[in-house]
UniProtKB/TrEMBL annotation:
InterPro entries registered for this protein in UniProt: FBD (IPR006566), FBL13/AtMIF1-like (IPR050232), LRR_dom_sf (IPR032675), LRR_FXL15/At3g58940/PEG3-like (IPR055411)
Highest taxon listed in the record's lineage: Eukaryota
Protein name: FBD domain-containing protein
Organism field: Carpinus fangiana
Gene3D superfamilies hit by this protein: Ribonuclease Inhibitor
Span of domain FBD: 254-328
One Pfam family matching this protein: FBD
Listed SUPFAM superfamilies: RNI-like
């Protein structure tokens, strides 16, 4: 479907409806009266919102909503929007990676305020087509922010920083980093002082395979109580002076010295850059208790290769005398 699509009026005042999934490539035309008194799950896909007042009314008229998912939707010409439901505990936003080519320039993007005392999970995956601001989400326990933008300007960099700043109260957070992160920090360099300490964050998952190492170190400076570091995409670091065995950091992240107990590295391929990265982690994480490494599928069942990898890992110096290296 394309163009303006009005849905049946009775749908928006149904008192028994508990779950609604709208998947329509269209401009959604909303009625003036909206009352989903029993709706607990709302999923909207491929829709373009057109009326700011009615759209805001939609997202504020959900008294018992628990789960909200917006997938590849466009805010159209809307400049400001708020999403606030008193019972909302899970919010997922997926934006099309190429949507900026269709939905206008960064100056046209919508600012979306997200609030809710019960919000526990926030997931975002996209190119920051809108500026998303979290507030009054003091119950937040888990957040995942994955973003890769081809063209990074200061405005987009600040949007990413705003999401990081808003996540300071989270106990578990998952962020996607890539080589583009260096550009993000470069464009937002004058604003990094706004980034708070993530004193509650204990588990960090790096979902991107190729991580710019200096960027990662800068980020980790703000996670003083981090206990678990999971490189879920594997290790493929952009490391300076790879041939320099004595390469060190000017400032080691505080968590390496006091709290970091577990590091997970899946998809380990025994490449030189990976071994260098593991060597650095083992040397500087002085309270580390476990380093769990999972070999990539290619080596599974190759006992000779696995033994060779394990021996090479055991020969690496460790800053923590109690650290166990586990190969899976």
């Amino acid at each position: 479907m394309e163009g303006f699509v009005p849905l049946p009026y009775c749908l928006f005042i149904c008192k028994t409806l508990t779950s609604l999934h709208l998947d329509m490539l269209c401009i959604l035309k909303l009625p003036t009266t909206i009352c989903f008194s029993s709706l607990k799950i709302l999923k909207i896909q491929s829709v373009t919102f057109s009326n700011e007042y009615l759209t805001r009314k939609l997202f504020s008229g959900l008294p018992v909503l628990e789960e909200l998912e917006l997938r590849n939707c466009s805010w159209g010409n809307l400049m400001f929007m708020s999403i606030s439901a008193p019972k909302l505990h899970s919010l997922c936003i997926f934006e099309n990676w190429t949507a900026d080519k269709y939905y206008g320039s960064p100056s046209d993007f919508c600012q979306v305020m997200i609030g809710g005392d019960c919000l526990k999970e926030f997931y975002y995956n996209g190119c920051l087509i809108g500026e998303y601001c979290l507030y009054e989400s003091f119950s937040m326990e888990e957040a995942e922010v994955v973003t890769i933008c081809e063209d990074v300007c200061e405005q987009l960099a600040l949007r990413m920083l705003n999401l990081l700043i808003a996540s300071k109260n989270y106990y578990v957070a998952e962020f996607g980093f890539s080589s583009i992160s260096k550009k993000v920090l470069t464009h937002a360099e004058g604003h990094l002082s706004q980034m708070p300490m993530f004193k509650n964050l204990m588990n960090l998952i790096i979902v991107e395979m190729c991580v710019d190492f200096p960027v990662l170190v800068k980020i980790l400076q703000n996670f003083p109580c981090l206990q678990t570091l999971n490189f879920s995409g594997g290790l493929c670091w952009a490391l300076p002076e790879l041939d320099n065995d004595d390469w060190t950091l000017d400032i080691v992240p505080p968590c390496f010295l006091s709290h970091l107990k577990l590091i997970k590295v899946p998809n380990y391929g025994d490449y030189e850059v990976e071994l260098f990265a593991v060597k650095f982690l083992l040397k500087n994480a002085v309270v580390l208790e476990e380093l769990i490494i999972t070999v990539e599928d290619y080596y599974v069942g190759n006992l000779e290769k696995e033994v060779k990898i394990y021996k090479a890992l055991l020969e690496l110096p460790r800053g923590s005398p109690n650290c166990k290296i586990i190969l899976e």
